[in-house]
Design goal:
The protein has about 400 residues and is of the alpha+beta class. The radius of gyration is 34 Å and the shape is elongated. The protein has 13 helices and eleven strands. α10 packs antiparallel against α13 (about 395-400).
Length: about 400
């Protein structure tokens, strides 16, 4: 009777996983440090994208509450880079456009504002004094933090409403305090603070301004009635249409010399700049991933050299080169999977803590939560490929002799 032919045993997936865990279990510190590089890279990717997404969600939430249907119309510049004033009738003409819901404007004055009359005239703190119409706050959907807004009676008095930044720079904290308005072509005098506004996301220029009533500004502060900035609140579905005709409506004689913008456009430009900066951070995260991959490759190479006796014994017992290579490759993949999973947890925790401190909604992109471990596994597999092939090429006699 012929003896049965011995066949090489095949390793199942479960066998490969058990073999792949032998190295990490016996060399825990070295394996943990190798996986740490991968974990830091994935954590950086998740943290950067998560914090950016949380910030974006916060801005969109505020923008939705304020309304993104605000259009800003202001003077453009000519070929000599000189501003071209808007016609005095531009506010009324823009208000006559059908989809426009409300319209208001600010005007330039010849005054500067100071904390008191002892401050040098050159130290304006970057603040401006603007004339304001009573309906400005409604058009901007602004809010008064303390005090009150201008009305039909106070707009004719020497009072000011301060933007949030203006109040901080002047040290004004409550209504009733006095500030000093002065200029070369106007008579200097004390003004009483009527109110202080909350920060306005859609019109940040108002935050650093002191607003006076239009009648008083025209009579005493040199306001000639020309709009400095016109704010147009439109029907939400018709913003683009109004934006297209705003220039020609505000200044029919020179529509190309009118600047028309939307706060959402400014936010888009800001987001593009922010994306460019994120690219630099993502590049650093990529470097961390490469360093982590090199750490895994180094660990696997050293592991192959230290485990030559084990490799030789397995080869002598009938293990094929492919099975040896698969064992070390699985070890590398396990390290990458562990590092990637840890990185997801670290990055998610960083996003949660940062967003909580800032008071933002937490938003972690699902793409990186899913792709993070996959990227880590791919990097680890590439890093472990050479050590795995090196182990597979060892001959049993050479490995046992050098063990």
């Amino acid at each position: 009777m012929n003896a049965p032919i011995a066949r090489a045993a095949r390793l199942t997936l479960a066998d490969l996983i058990r073999l792949g865990l032998v190295g990490p279990r016996t060399r825990r510190l070295r394996s943990a440090l190798s996986a740490l590089g991968i974990a830091l890279g994935i954590a950086a990717l998740v943290a950067v994208t998560g914090i950016s997404a949380s910030h974006q969600a916060h801005l969109l939430d505020r923008l939705n509450r304020l309304g993104s249907n605000l259009i800003t119309v202001s003077p453009g510049v000519d070929v000599n880079q000189q501003p071209v004033p808007l016609p005095k009738e531009s506010v009324a003409m823009l208000g006559a456009v059908a989809p426009v819901e409300t319209v208001s404007a600010t005007g330039a004055t010849k005054a500067d504002i100071y904390r008191n009359d002892h401050v040098p005239v050159t130290q304006t703190n970057g603040l401006s004094v603007l004339s304001a119409r009573v309906g400005l706050l409604e058009t901007l959907h602004g809010k008064v933090r303390v005090g009150r807004w201008l009305d039909g009676s106070t707009e004719k008095l020497p009072v000011v409403v301060l933007g949030s930044e203006a109040a901080d720079r002047l040290g004004a904290a409550a209504p009733g305090e006095r500030v000093w308005l002065c200029g070369k072509e106007i008579q200097c005098s004390w003004f009483s603070v009527l109110g202080i506004l909350s920060p306005n996301l859609l019109a940040p220029e108002i935050d650093s301004a002191a607003l006076t009533g239009r009648p008083w500004s025209a009579a005493h502060l040199g306001d000639d009635g020309t709009p400095a900035t016109v704010y147009v609140r439109t029907h939400p579905a018709r913003v683009t249409d109004v934006q297209a005709v705003a220039g020609a409506t505000a200044n029919p004689a020179a529509p190309n010399l009118v600047s028309v913008s939307r706060p959402s456009d400014l936010l888009k430009a800001r987001a593009e700049t922010k994306t460019a900066l994120e690219g630099m951070v993502l590049a650093l995260a990529g470097v961390a991933l490469v360093v982590g991959g090199l750490g895994i490759a180094n660990t696997m190479v050293v592991g192959v050299m230290e485990r030559r006796g084990e490799v030789g014994l397995r080869r002598a017992l009938g293990a094929r080169p492919g099975q040896i290579a698969a064992q070390f490759l699985v070890e590398a993949v396990m390290l990458g999977l562990f590092g990637g999973s840890t990185g997801i947890l670290l990055g998610g925790a960083a996003v949660h803590v940062y967003a909580g401190v800032k008071g933002w909604p937490t938003s972690t992109p699902l793409t990186w939560v899913i792709a993070g471990p996959a990227v880590a596994v791919v990097i680890a597999a590439v890093a472990g490929l050479y050590p795995a092939m090196r182990a597979a090429r060892m001959s049993p006699t050479e490995a046992l002799r050098s063990a």
